[in-house]
């Protein structure tokens, strides 16, 4: 069962239309990503209806391209894995419908995948995951600390109570007049500045592994309004230090509390250079093994969905053709 297992992954939860083929849950054969970033940029964020329509237009061609690049045909596939949620429901539905159609037409199993599980399994495409582990998942929609005792088992240790880390990056970028998505722009700009502005760190109540970033965003807004003229690079650096310090220290606390020695970084914000640097330093000090996905696997892609889906297939976690997209799907 675990040899020559070819899984097609499909991801359409937000503004990337992606299809990929992964062999045996670890070998990336293709990973085609069609980003809608340019389409949404002038609105300063993703417009759900526009995203869904573009997914419909691109889906079939992207799947064909993923198969062609991998050099496989539809009837070589062992299963089709798709992001069931969380995400924009109209966008998710396009991927789910495509996966169901393929499963129906070819008779291969249909595997629903949680988007966060996908982000964690992006790391599996580099080197096998070692359990137990803690994963810090930081993206435009999520900021979560997840404990995994084994494959396919997830326990949430902490989550954001308001904005996700990536969302905070995007909102602060907007305040600074930077284009969407703002994360990479703040990352670059921060390197030219100094963290000169004292900004709040939301540690929340003692021992909490939850996060909160909306107060920080408001504090940045106040700094920009108060100081005239303000050096944008200093604001970016100050904001980034505040986010990174909280993400880093709560991750280390989660690892220590669960007694694991493996920390896995996941999600779009894990591309952040300062977060990678700070986590690497603290993990080295604490004797924790840190895993960081390569930049191209940090943001949304279907290879991570195919990798996570393969382990669910091996666990028998397949779905029927009545599968539906779930915007706020729980991780279980
Ligand atoms: O995982 P992802 O592609 O989509 C979601 O599932 O949300 O993450 C996108 C998020 C955006 O908010 C983007 O600004 C952020 O990841 N991001 C970054 C960086 N690269 C992408 N944030 C900070 N620094 C970066 N280098
Ligand atoms: Zn994502």
Largest sheet geometry:
5 strands, mixed
CATH fold-level assignment of the largest domain: Nucleotidyltransferase, domain 5
| Quaternary structure of the protein | single chain
CATH superfamily of the largest domain: ATPase, nucleotide binding domain
Low-confidence sequence ranges: none
- Please give the count of helices: 11
Secondary structure: helix percent = 40-55%
Descriptive account of the structure:
The protein is an alpha/beta fold. It has two domains: 133 residues, Nucleotidyltransferase, domain 5 (2-Layer Sandwich); 163 residues, Nucleotidyltransferase, domain 5 (2-Layer Sandwich). The protein is built from eleven helices and ten strands. The strands form two sheets. A five-stranded mixed beta sheet has the order 3-2-1-4-5, with helices on both faces. α5 packs parallel to α7. The model has no long low-confidence stretch (mean pLDDT 95). The site of zinc ion (ZN) has 6 residues, from α4.
Task: Tell me briefly what this model is.
The chain is of the alpha/beta class. The chain contains eleven helices and ten strands.
Secondary-structure blueprint:
Elements: E1 6-11, E2 16-23, E3 27-35, H1 37-41, H2 48-70, E4 79-85, H3 89-106, E5 110-114, H4 115-121, E6 133-138, E7 143-148, E8 155-159, H5 165-175, H6 183-190, H7 214-226, H8 232-258, E9 262-266, H9 273-286, E10 289-291, H10 295-298, H11 302-314
Parallel strand pairs: 1-4, 4-5, 6-9, 9-10
Antiparallel strand pairs: 1-2, 2-3, 6-7, 7-8
The chain binds 5'-O-[(R)-(carboxyoxy)(hydroxy)phosphoryl]adenosine (KG4) and zinc ion.
